[in-house]
Amino acid sequence: MLNSALDLMTVEQAHTSGAYVKRDLQIVRGAGARLEDAAGRSYIDLVGGQGVAALGHSHPAIVQAVQQQAAELMICPELFHNPLRARYQAELCQVAEMPRVFLCNSGAESIEGAIKIARLATRRPGIVATMRGFHGRTLGALSATWNKSYRGPFEPLLPHVTHVPYNNVERLAEALDEHTAAVLIEPVQGEGGVYPAEDGYLQAVAELCRANGTLLILDEVQTGFGRTGWFFAHQRDGVRPDLLCVAKSMAGGIPMGAVLLGERIGVLPPATHGTTFGGNPLACAAGLAVLDVLRSTDLITQARARGAAVLDHLRAHLLSGAYREVRGRGFLIGIELRGKVAPVLGALQACGVLALPAGMTVLRLMPPLVISDDDLWQAVETVEEVLNDAV
Predict the structure, then answer these.
(1) What kind of architecture, by CATH, is found in domain 5-58+298-389?
(2) What is the per-residue pLDDT across 211-253, written as a single tens digit (0 to 9) for each?
(3) Could you give the dihedral angle defined by the CA atoms of residues 314, 318, 321 and 323, in that order, rounded to the nearest 10 degrees?
(4) Model pTM score
(5) CA–CA separation, 369 vs 92, rounded Å?
(6) Is 268 buried (19+), middle (13-18) or exposed (0-12) by CB count in 10 A?
(7) Residues spanned by CATH 3.90.1150.10 within the chain?
(8) What ranges make up the beta strands (E) of 60-142?
(9) pLDDT at position 1 over 50
(10) What is the enclosing helix (H) or strand (E) of 387?
């Protein structure tokens, strides 16, 4: 019988697809901003399930909602009405200030849906995305993703997709024409290196889209639900997308995604899109719990203030030889290093802090909104020590 952590890691490695390069670490439980491995060691988690655990691990409100709903009804396709789904759709649309929503299961699904809806609504084929942008790895989402190493093995991809530099209004204006269905951008580029939109950029993009009869798709899969210090990152800039893609943090760890539909989209014709599991009652129960926590606390505004304090601290205390730039917004923080990020990730793990890359040379930190001050500053000081010691 297989019991030891090493036995089970070997079994997992033998049967996993190979699509993931796994770290030498077996995680068995989590609470708040902490994870525990099979040996009982605790880690401060700045990975958060790749941005999913904005409310930390096993948040009591989410656990209670999921347990209660699992005992009542777990699946109900949108062939039928469901009261919990009705509540969730209404409350999500209210916080997003958009009238309708298509519920799905992941960020890549939401991007795929938005591309389809944009093409349907405009009867145009073209999508303009940005260099460094990341939107997922399914074929349509991958077509809009910039990284050549992700795209290359699967080409030819979706036609009529072009890429322009991020934060460059002039190049975007040149790319738009009568064939452009939508512009697809992130308010803060995450996987591409943690690059926030410059002041005025999103407003200019929205104005160009309107003038050209083009739809604006905002990818807030990573930045939504308080991550950047606003409920949705674009709200800082006062813009209204036509399609808003969300996922990750929206259900606290239960798989969930959505495409929110603006006024210019209207009602989708029947059978133009679909999903088996989207909008299931279990995910909706978790989603409602997340909304309740975010609306009844000051976690979002605290993420804005605490994230700014972390950025200021790192810029003041990191040695110049350790980094090129510190960027971010709220609790989405990137440190561009002068060398490879992989050794830094290993050193941090050895010191009890888990973090992510954002490309080959950027260290990405995504603390949960619920992280205590003690854990937050212990993690920041560990990052500081690891980077400065490497100079």
Answers:
(1) Alpha-Beta Complex (3.90)
(2) 999 999 999 999 999 999 999 999 999 999 999 999 999 999 9
(3) -20
(4) 0.97
(5) 19
(6) middle
(7) 5-58+298-389
(8) 100-104, 126-130
(9) no
(10) helix 373-389
